[in-house]
Task: structure prediction
Amino acid sequence: MDEAHDLHGKTLTGLKRLMELVRNQGDILAVVLAGHPKLKNDLRRPSMEEIGARATVLTLDGIQGQQREYITWLLEQCAPADPEAIFTPEAIDLLAHSLATPLQVEPYLTLALEAAYRAGQKPITPEIISSVLAKGLNDVEPTLARHGYGPKALAEVLQVRPAEIRALLRGSLPAGRAQELQNALRAVGLPL
Result:
């Protein structure tokens, strides 16, 4: 099941029961859940202990720490030229520093190529990369979303109202309360 981080706890409990029924009949049923890191965190919560103890969690870090190599490899696969003939080393470094997933890399490479073509610029420079990168790309809200945590999920984890989470993400909470919620998010292992 893809997007399993969005499954309700009762659904996970139902899947566990289904697997038990199948096992009691002498058969085997394996369920593979795929999702954002939120799924792993959810399975570790005390309320999900019964299910989490029966699960084997595999973490796939994708290209984390290897973004530059991935970008270079991707360019080598797509273009007959040396990647540094298309992008300056500094532009590749900026992309690698700014982007975390293949789902981000590929569209931003396309945007950079289009912008450079329109500007008649070759090779592509960090200035062109900066012009196409979304502002706030690595702010708290998008980072948490990439881990499967929207305002509703964050509110559930912290046991606060979603409106308070939205205010935190907009930066409109009083400083003391914002710090308190950020500390609570760090305490449960969320990236900030």
Summary: The chain has three domains: 4-52, 67-132, 140-187. Residues 4-52 form one domain.
